[in-house]
């Protein structure tokens, strides 16, 4: 017997724009039913309530033999296809625990977290310490396990950006000054080679922003504080400093109103220090990531605010003011359409 689970409206709207997305949506009820049957799960939703969802999939609270879990089914894209491998390698240390997975359907059975208590609302000093501790836990080094072969290397991505970024900048009509593009290309050309030759390879959670860090339902650390773990990793291999960027383009309105540019650079240094990372390397990687984001937004309609935010962060990290941008506290927060 089919189990009815409502598909959230924003997820339906997002994936109704392409034939591939519409095909996935039409098959999603069957994927849900198959996963519930495979893992002997019962849906744990109040009548009429919608499940949770992120940008790339649906997350359904379920129960199995009294255990409160979630079923996550993602649209099959690059990051989703490798997520299970990263979670398997972390084994619940710093990241949500993976109980089972089905690669064919991009479905995972995960421990349930407290979805109402993101780190997004925590005081910044607390968020910094939690984030830094998680980065230390997540930065595991490659070993003999086969899952390591599934991830792209960050240095290889940077080397590819050396060609792709200028080509996209030209194609889009040079949407920002060349000096900012050249600042990003310098990072690609140095850290791409250096990162592969001399950097320390670890597993990197590339989307470790405040809303991707949730506490356990009831778990506490030995000091009595809530125990947080990460979700939605977008994993790659390379320098751990690559993980800092999402912390900088989120919660911009928490920066000082009198000197937000200085405050952003201080945040980069503070969060890097909390995670035992090199602040200058983090600044460089964050610069190139935001330039790449800016080009993504420049190619999409109705993303002027997001483009302005990326340009403000990138130019601030480059140490040079870019004229014509809104004040920092007028910039929008990243939303579901954010590229990274």
In short:
The protein is of the alpha+beta class and 340 residues long. The protein contains 10 helices and 10 strands. Helix 6 packs across helix 9 and helix 9 (279-298) packs antiparallel against helix 10 (304-318).
Structure description:
With 340 residues, the protein is of the alpha+beta class. β2 (52-53) and β3 form a beta hairpin. Strands 1, 2, 3, 4, 5 and 6 form a six-stranded antiparallel β-sheet that branches. Strands 7-10 form a two-stranded antiparallel sheet. Helix content is 44%, strand content 14%. The chain has helices at 9-15, 19-38, 78-90, 124-138, 154-171, 178-197, 245-249, 260-274, 279-298, 304-318; strands at 42-43, 52-53, 57-64, 67-74, 98-102, 107-111, 202-204, 213-220, 226-230, 236-238. The chain is globular, with a radius of gyration of 20 Å. It starts with 8 loop residues before the first helix and ends in a 22-residue tail after the last helix.
Number of helices: 10
Biggest sheet statistics: 6 strands, antiparallel
Summing up helix and strand content along with how strands pair, one would put the structural category as alpha+beta
The percent range for strand residues is: 5-15%
Give the N-terminus to C-terminus distance in angstroms.
39 Å
Order of helices and strands: HHEEEEHEEHHHEEEEHHHH
Question: C-alpha Rg, in Å?
Answer: 20 Å
Shape by Cα distribution: globular
Q: Which consecutive residue ranges, at least 5 long each, have pLDDT under 50?
A: 336-340
DSSP strand tally: 10
